[in-house]
Request: fold
Amino acid sequence: MYKVCSLFAGVGGIDLGFLETKQCDVVYANEFDPYAVKTYELNFDTKVDNRDIHQVKVDEIPDFDIMIGGFPCTSFSVAGYRKGFDDDRTGDLFFEMERIFKERKPRVVFLENVKNLVGHNQGQTFKVIIDRLEKAGYKDKIKCQVLNACEYGNIPQNRERIYIVAFRDKEDFERFEMPMPIPLDNTIKKVFNFTSMVDEKYYYRNGKYKGNMVEMLEEAMDDDNTVYQWRRKYVRKNQSNLVPTLTANMGEGGHNVPLIKTSYGIRKLTPMECFYAQGYPKDYKLPTDLADSKLYKQAGNSVVVPVINRIAENIMKALR
Ligand SMILES: C[S@@+](CC[C@H](N)C(=O)[O-])C[C@H]1O[C@@H](n2cnc3c(N)ncnc32)[C@H](O)[C@@H]1O
Reply:
């Protein structure tokens, strides 16, 4: 079994992709958001270190072979501040990962981030990340690629993310390949519940909202194979059978959660459905005492598990 150190663990989407290979154990997980920790600990045996990562000393972390982390991307995403490493709120978090891999030199470092990481600040941000990995001993042993979940994970979500895999040993690097595209035969009809009633609170009913919003939704939402979004003054129709990229701002209230037309009316996706749209398995559990806003945020912040799993499987083959 390979020992995994999970940083910025969130609700464990990357952890799950690695654990599903059945060749890994998560020996250490760090995450400082208590609500995410609650969801994580409901699903995994590992007890989460819930301190701010800045407070964790390298020698407090047990031995591990693989470091995984989708470090916070607000400073890199188009939707975020576009400040990169100048953003003193979150921009330094990659360097917290570096602090640990520089000293411990794990056999694999796996990083996940928004696609925009590559082009951010004319490519400077990305260059710094690669440069730091190279200086830590991973030079010429790094593979990275942008993968869209609907092309690589058989999940009907348009979610492009960059995956960076760095190897300490040349032979491992040479044996590793990013996964190939696979057909999308999964559908939103299989992922979401179109035919039975969910909690009434998720439906858009006449008289429930100000103005003529519900009428506009009813007029525009004519296709039950499509996911829609309310955009302040108009209804956005997405590509057929594709969920738009789920984001943490779904948890900010308003009308940020994508919408579907079901037999029981127009409604937003439930938090559990957002986890399913990230490829989480049916037996993944959500705490019953957390507000929907927290759960939507957790789903939006997470990853598409089957894409992670396909990369993790290839990593396992390379390490063997
Ligand atoms: C993009 S999310 C990662 C989500 C994760 N990959 C998943 O599948 O759920 C980044 C996570 O980093 C956590 N985080 C941000 N700053 C942190 C810090 N200083 N120390 C520990 N965790 C932090 C956030 O709470 C958030 O859950």
In short: The two ends are 11 Å apart (CA to CA). The mean pLDDT is 93. Residues 8, 10-14, 30-33, 36, 52-54, 70, 72-73, 93, 301-303 surround S-adenosylmethionine (CB under 6 Å). The first strand starts at residue 2 and ends at 7.
